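Any chance you could type out some protein's one-letter sequence along with its backbone structure tokens so I can compare the two?
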Amino acid sequence: MEPSFAGDVTIARAVQSAAPGTAWASRVSTIVTAPGKYVLMTLAVALAFAISGWRAALVVIVVIAAEQWLGEASKQLAARPRPSRDLIAVTGSPSGFSFPSTSMTLMAVTCGAVALIGLRSRLTWARAVGVISLVPLVLMALARVTLGAHWPSDVVLTTVICLAWVWAGLRVARA
């Protein structure tokens, strides 16, 4: 893995300069810590069930369990370093590796899963829930880059990979 990909520094600086400080990003980032993450998980399973039934809820439960079990461990495979203070502003002292972003893995298997389920539905209210579910996903991505905890490529690639697994699970389960 490269320490950063082409465009990472430029995009990270642009996000950081457009952001209204870092306080909002710190607050958004707490969503993925206890107890907020448990509320997020429960809400995702409940919405998946309400929109598409037990199969969708089961897929969400399985991808959440996989994320909780493998999320942090998968960072060891890539061993990609966190953004450097020499290149962008870094808030606090983020530790460990930057890819995959475990903040984004959790957001993808909860909010992203609900978005996929909702947007695939024929129900108007479910589609609205799907669109609304994208908001916290995007906010978390922007927050992690604003704080300098992750490169833009970390959050984008993490989200794409996780959503591909969720989509595949939904297809297999015919949910």
